[in-house]
Amino acid sequence: MKVITTVGISILTQNYQGQFANSKDALLSDWDNERVQGEIDKFRNEDNQTNQLFPKTAQEVCAEIHTLYEIAKQNPTETLQVYLLATDTVTSVIACELMIAWLNFNKEDGDETSQRIQIAAAVSTGELGVMRQQRSIYQSAYPDAFILPIPDLQVKNPNAFQTTGFSNLLTAINAIAGTDKPILNISGGYKATIPILTIMGQIYGYPLRYTHEDSKEGQIIGLEKLPVAFDAEQIERIFPLLDEDVLPNIDPALLNEAANFGLLMPDRKKRSPLGTLFFNYVNNFAPQGKPALGVFVEYKLLEYFAFFWKDRKSYKVVRSVPIIDQNEEEKLKGNEIDLLLEPIENASIYEAIIDGNLTSGIKPSGYIACEVKPFSSFSNSTKFKKIREQFPKTCNYISSEWDKPKEFYYIVYTLLDTIPDDLLERAKDRMKRVRDEMVLQRFDISFWLVKLSIPINVDTYTNFMQERIASLEPIIL
C-alpha cells in the first residue's frame, strides 16, 4: 500500500524547539553552508536523538508519524510503502531524516507497527526523474530509503512556490502513484498545499488522511472520493485552451472562463497549479469512454440528418452501428460507426438494426459513414493517440468487409465560440494525417465542424436537447 506523506517540521518544533535558529529559513541549496552544518550534525547525532526523540510515542513525536501509525492500524495486514516528500528546505529534509531515525529505532526495538512501515526507494518515473532525491543516512533498517525534496516548494520566493513548486508537487505525486490509488498523508508540510491536495484526492480518487499535534491515539480524519466530476460541456469549453504549447498565443479575452475558475496564472500565459491539475486529469485520467455529451451530440446529429439535412429524403440514418468480427460475430472492441446514412432504396443495415438481427453478413452500399468526436480529440496530442489507435481499424474494415463508402464525414463538435487560430491549425494538421496516413485514398473523407451553444444553468442538457443543430460547417484543409 502506497502512502505519500508531505513532511513539514513538526518533529523539530515538538522535540527541538529553539535549536534550529540558523537552519529555520534555509533553503535546501544552503545545505553545505557552514551556517547550518552545525545544526545538521547536531540533529544527526545519535546520542541527541536517543535523549530527545526516541523516548516519544508515535502520537507524541510528530503528526506525520502519528498518521502513518493510524493508517497502519486501520490496515493490519498491509505493509505501507511510504514516500516522504519534503519541501525545498533544510529543515524539512532533516525532519524526514529524524522520522526515519525514529522509525528505525522502533523497528529494531521490535515494534510491530514500525516493521510494517517501509520508507520507499528512489523513484524515477517520468518527469520525477529530474528532481533531486536525497538518500537517507539511516541504513540499518531502511537500506533503500530515499527522501524526495520538491524543488521550489518553499515560501522565500512566493512566486516560485505558486508557479513551479505546486506543479512539481503534483508531478511527484502522480509519478509515484502511477496506476495505483495511494493514500495521501497530508498531516505535514505547508498548510497552503492542503486545498489543492484535497482537490487532487477527489479528482484522482486518492484517499486523504490527516491528524494534528493534539489528536489523540485512534483519532484520524479521513476523506474518501465523493461522487463528483467535471461537467463534460465545461471540459470541452476550457480544456482545449489550456494546452501550454498554444496558450501563450491565445487572445486573453478568450480565456475569461478558465481565468474565473482559477485555472490560469495572472498573466494568462500559463496554467495555474489548479489548471495543471484539471488539464492532467482530463488529458490522462478522465474516463476514456464516450461521455454523455458525446452521445447527446450524436442524437442531435441523427435528428439533423433525418429532418433538416438537404438530402434527408434520399437517406435513412441510424446511430451506433457496431463493426462486427465476421469470424466471431462479436463487436470489435472500441469500434463502431457513429452514424450511418444509407440510401432509402438499399437500407440493409437500417432495417437489420430495426429488426434486431444485424450480422456480419449484412453489408451496406452507397452509404455515408460518420465519425463524431470532440474538437479536443484533434487539438490535443494525447487525445489524438486514441484516434490513431482506433480509426485505422475502422478504415480497414469498411474498405475490406463492406463496399467502400460513398463518402466519410468526420464531424467534430466544440463549445468554443471562437477557436484560436493556433489551435485550429494544430487540429487541421492532425486531420490531414487522418486523411493521408489512415484513409490512404481508399475513400473520400471530409471534416465538418459543429458549434454547440450550451448555457450554464441547472437545465443545461434540457435546453440543449430542445434546440436543433442548424448546419454543419466544412473544415477546409
What does this 3D model show about the protein?
This protein is α/β, with parallel strands linked by helices and 477 residues long. It has three domains: 2-223, Hypothetical protein VC1899 like domain (Restriction endonuclease-like) (Rossmann fold), CATH 3.40.50; 232-285, no CATH class; 292-474, Trna Endonuclease, Chain: A, domain 1. The chain is built from 18 helices and 14 strands. The strands form two sheets. Strands 1, 2, 3, 4, 5, 6, 7 and 8 form an eight-stranded mixed sheet that branches. The protein has a six-stranded mixed sheet with strand order 9-10-11-12-13-14, sandwiched between helices. The protein is elongated and about 95 Å long. The two termini are 51 Å apart.
Characteristic key phrases:
single chain; 477 residues; alpha/beta; Rossmann fold; Trna Endonuclease, Chain: A, domain 1; 3 domains; eight-stranded mixed β-sheet; 18 helices; 14 strands; elongated
How is the secondary structure organized here?
Blueprint: E1 2-7, H1 10-15, H2 34-44, H3 46-52, H4 58-61, H5 63-74, E2 80-86, H6 90-108, H7 112-115, E3 117-119, E4 134-135, E5 146-149, H8 158-177, E6 183-185, H9 194-204, E7 208-210, E8 221-223, H10 232-238, H11 256-260, H12 273-285, H13 292-307, E9 315-325, E10 330-343, H14 348-355, E11 368-374, H15 376-379, H16 381-400, E12 407-414, H17 421-439, E13 445-451, H18 460-466, E14 473-474
Parallel strand pairs: 1-2, 1-6, 2-3, 2-5, 6-7, 11-12, 12-13
Antiparallel strand pairs: 4-5, 7-8, 9-10, 10-11, 13-14
Helix pairs in contact: 2-6, 9-12, 16-17
